[in-house]
Amino acid sequence: MSERRKNVRILTRREFIGIVGLGVTGLATSMKLCGQEGNGAEEKLNVMLIMTDDQGYGDLSCHGNPILKTPNLDQLHSCGTRFTDFHVTPMCTLTRGQLLMGRDALDNGATFVNHRSMMRHGLTTIADIFRINGYRTGLFGKWHLGDDYPHYPLDRSFETVILHGAWGIASIADYFGNDYFNDTYRSNGRYREYEGYCTDIWFDEAMHWMKDRQRAGERFFCYVSTNAPHEPHWVGERYAEPYKGRGPVNFFGLIANLGENMGWLMRFLEAQGLVSDTVLRLNVGDCQVHTMFSDVHGKELYNAYYTEVERLQT
Question: What is the pLDDT of residue 63?
């Protein structure tokens, strides 16, 4: 556990709900730090975007999953602004390209997860817009929109970049031997060894970066894009243990770790006094893999859509 985590006070549920303006909805979640008022319409706010990978609508206990426990994400869901009719493409690259460019995949060029995973050069990204408006920009985790010039995030107006290669850790383009624990990632284009678990590192590095931006009096756009819970499903035993014999054990463990990191993030924002001037948006995945891989109606594992259809038909 990092020193940043050790020194952060644990919030009560009441305090948590009072400071969060975040919401979690199905495949996408829009969140705004709630219960706070800005100083004026012209004030610039910090913006943080978090995207998980291959986490579906039903992979949250607040959406009715009878096994998976996601208390921190459920709290975001209960007090935030939610997009209840939000649609994404069913693949990693396409969803990311469309989100960062505001253009359909067939228009921006990033139309597949392998050889067609780069956005067209010269198109404006969300990071370009933030930079033009005086923001500092950072990316932590997964990019999957090109690993070399001119498609690397440093070439797309992200100033600070810490990420794994290609579609995920253990992909061919990633550093050989990475296995989620104590890996080697690219930090601003150079390989660097990190101590800890991948998702913990993305959140820890993002929090450290935001703290530096705050000290410097700089507004920021922080993009945390996790490789979890995408395969390979490698996670610490303590996260997987509660789900043994009750479903996709490691997949659920990955989401449990994600939820824990969201809790640490919210406590960090509160401790740093960033709650009143930070907008946070959470996008939950691009597809529900474990429903997709079960039978045609998703009956082998929990599926929120078919559960609701069955409820309405009874």
Answer: 85
Residue type, 150: P
Within 55-164, strands assigned E span: 136-141, 160-163
Confidence class for position 31, pLDDT limits 50, 70, 90:
very low
- Whole-Å CA distances, 73 to 16, 34, 93, 263, 279: 11, 15, 24, 8, 16
Structural domain of 56:
45-88+287-314
The answer to whether residue 302 is domain-embedded is yes
Spatial distance between the Cα atoms of 142 and 229, rounded to a whole number of angstroms? 12
Question: Residue 70 falls within a domain, yes or no?
Answer: yes
Which has the closest alpha carbon to 220: 130, 114, 300, 125? Answer: 130
Q: Which amino acid is at 23?
A: G
pTM attached to this predicted model: 0.84
Q: How, if at all, do strands 160-163 and 184-187 pair? A: antiparallel
3-state secondary structure at position 80: coil
> Angle, nearest 10°, between helix axes 249-271 and 198-215?
10
Given a contact cutoff of 8 angstroms between Cβ atoms, the answer to whether 243 and 68 are in contact is yes
CB 113 within 8 A of CB 166: no
| Residues 302 and 58 sit within 8 Å (Cβ to Cβ) | yes
Tell me whether residue 8 is in a domain: no
Burial 221-247 (b: 16+ CB within 10 A, else e): bbbbbbbbbbbebbbbeebbeebeeeb
Tally the domains of the chain. 1
Quick check: is 201 in a domain?
no
Predicted confidence (pLDDT) per residue in 245-270, tens digit: 988 899 999 999 999 999 999 999 99
